[in-house]
Amino acid sequence: MFENKSNRYITRIIDYLNERGWKTKVGNTFGKNSIYSILDNEKYSGVYVFNRSSKKDTLGKRNSHLLKDESEVIRIEVGMPAIVSKETFQKAREMMNARKRAPGANKAKETYLLSELIFCGECGSAMQGNRRKAKDKPMYISYRCGGRMQKRNCDNKEIRKEYIEEFVLSELEKNILNDKAVPILVEKINQHIQEQAKNEKESTEIMLKEIEDIDEQINNIVSAIMKGFAHEEFKTMMDDLKGKKAKLEVAIKEQENRSKAPKITEEQVKQLFSMFRDFVIQRNIPKCKKFIQNYVNKVIVYKDHVEVIFNMVFNILQGYEAYKIKSTVKKAILFKRYRNIA
């Protein structure tokens, strides 16, 4: 209860700041993380802190979020005006740390089948699992837009976990994990392979033409040198041309290997589906969770409809783009179809 009250206070603070158009120091709208960052910032208690950020990561790229070891950080007490007392700052930090260690009573473990696969179609944010319980009502479990939860800048409504997961599994069962669908699926996948092979053949022809042009340039340089035009620039040009030619030859070889990929057979598809199919039919969500990313590319939730993009990829087709199938449903139909399972 205390945790819920605390969340309501933070939500009100976020709304207050964003409604007035105030921004964080990097120009973003306020969210939970920016509020927590302020509460955990020592400078508000009068401590001047520097030499905290390493600025660059291991690849030499700038990264102000990469922190140095605590032993290298320099702190100067009373180094700047304090806005809050030491006691208040420390009490706030202790409360935040306590909540990290002890989640609320409503944070029971829940298996979210579509985590990392489901996104808001209105703002593009990842959707996150959410649990809430109103008085005298059963637990409401849903996926909620991260933009709505963290920054309060998206009005796309949450969607019940049971509805969207049942739709995804039903469509997966109907369109892919179905003996009647297998012949159609195999035909479409093989057509997809042929189209990609055709595109790669055209790409190979273009690269072969580039190699011809490079050979001609190399021959011209050799002829110039034989006629006595010896310049240092010729050597640099020759090395660059040879490097480009070598890269093109490697790319051509890779495309040739991909073009030899065999056709997919119905037996291969059925064998691939054999174990996973039973888990889907039984609606064994924890087991499905282990395999779902192999078949679902993305779930996109818009205000009025939902899109699911299924992914079909086989090990023997390594390097080929996966064949995708899309299913779409209006939210109103989704709610009507699955409301009996809630």
Structure description:
A four-stranded mixed sheet has the order 3-7-8-9. Strands 4-5-6 form a three-stranded antiparallel sheet. Strands 1-2 form a two-stranded antiparallel ribbon. It is flat, with a radius of gyration of 29 Å. The protein starts with a helix and ends with a helix. The chain has ten helices and nine strands. 49% of the residues lie in helices and 13% in strands. With 342 residues, the protein is of the alpha+beta class. 13% of the residues are buried. The protein has helices spanning 2-19, 32-39, 86-101, 146-151, 161-175, 182-226, 232-259, 266-282, 285-291, 331-338, and strands at 48-50, 74-76, 118-120, 127-132, 140-145, 159-160, 296-301, 305-312, 323-330.
Average pLDDT:
78
How many β strands by DSSP? 9
What class would the helix/strand composition place it in?
A: alpha+beta
Strand content: 5-15%
Count of DSSP-assigned helices:
10
Roughly how much helix do the residues carry, as a percent range? 40-55%
**What can be said about the biggest beta sheet?**
4 strands, mixed
Key features of this structure:
alpha+beta; 4-stranded mixed β-sheet; 342 residues; 3-stranded antiparallel β-sheet; 10 helices; flat; 9 strands; 13% strand
